[in-house]
């Protein structure tokens, strides 16, 4: 007598062995970028959709509805697996990271597309074998647009006429410029900036220009102070938990790498530039006074900024890196890319 039940079970086993069902890897992404911000709508969400497409549905990225943990702790959020992917800025962990900081030096670039691509390429060229972020998988690195100083009433015209002006600095790169200008640096989370400005706790803030209209700061600021290539910049990382990365199929790793790295850095930079140009127009339309560093003020700042470079060069030389070569290479690459834009 034929046992159809045995045949059916055997057939199912044989089918499952011959045609394995590939499991879907669901990756949680933690980011401080607001849901409506152009970096989210034009870069991050399309990237997540692209991951699903290039892996043929085997990897799905879920952008968390709110940031996991604190902004300053985003690196550890990925490193410890609280989320699979996180985004943040190294300068919010003072003393922990130093290699990245060449990208935040003043005067190195006016186009975020150029500085972002150059940051990714230069960082990997020089620090790849000894990357201080080696405990995670680095998916991409990028920068914002050039940092500027915005004030409610005060107009910067010299190095010695700024005493008593209180400015929210933010990260290390911005704060030291505030100090160099003889102003009083006030530290506070970005989320508190609007309240501090409206209440007169601070007289200004160091910001990437597009953030001013996006977050409504243009209601308070009448002036901005600019320097060629930026008074500072802000660099960002997008990193992944190493275990989560290792669990992906090699072909999916390769597919994700192909749409991340320099490609993603360029996309982030392009959007920073796009919203930066929109901000410039908004400032012009509103009558905001823009003052550019020139004459003795520009010369004095340039001299101070050389000291910033020297400090960074010394910080990495102890680890065997030629910091001057790295800065020179980065500057040349930024200039080359900007000329082609």
How would you sum up this structure, described in words?
It is built from twelve helices and eleven strands. The protein has two domains: 22-143 and 233-275, Bacterial extracellular solute-binding protein, family 7 (D-Maltodextrin-Binding Protein, domain 2), CATH 3.40.190; 147-232 and 287-339, D-Maltodextrin-Binding Protein, domain 2 (3-Layer(aba) Sandwich), CATH 3.40.190.170. With 341 residues, the chain is of the alpha/beta class. It has a six-stranded mixed β-sheet, sandwiched between helices. A five-stranded mixed β-sheet has the order 2-1-3-10-4. It is 45% helix and 16% strand. Pfam families: DctP (PF03480). InterPro entries: DctP_fam, TRAP_DctP_sf. Keywords: Signal. This is Outer membrane transporter protein TsaT.
Number of helices: 12
The name of the CATH superfamily of the largest domain reads Bacterial extracellular solute-binding protein, family 7
Radius of gyration equals 23 Å
Compressed to H and E, one letter per element, the order equals HEHEHEHEEEHEHEHEEHHHEHH
User: How much helicity do the residues have?
Assistant: 40-55%
Mind summarizing the main beta sheet? 6 strands, mixed
Distance between the termini: 79 Å
The total domain count is 2
Query: What is the arithmetic mean of pLDDT?
Result: 92
The fold-level CATH name of the largest domain is D-Maltodextrin-Binding Protein, domain 2
Strand-pairing-aware structural class: alpha/beta
CATH architectural name of the largest domain:
3-Layer(aba) Sandwich
Q: Can you count the beta strands? A: 11
Poorly predicted regions: 1-21
| Major β-sheet strand ordering | 7-6-8-5-9-11
Task: Estimate the strand proportion.
Answer: 15-25%
CATH first level of the largest domain: which class?
Alpha Beta
User: What gross morphology would you assign?
Assistant: globular
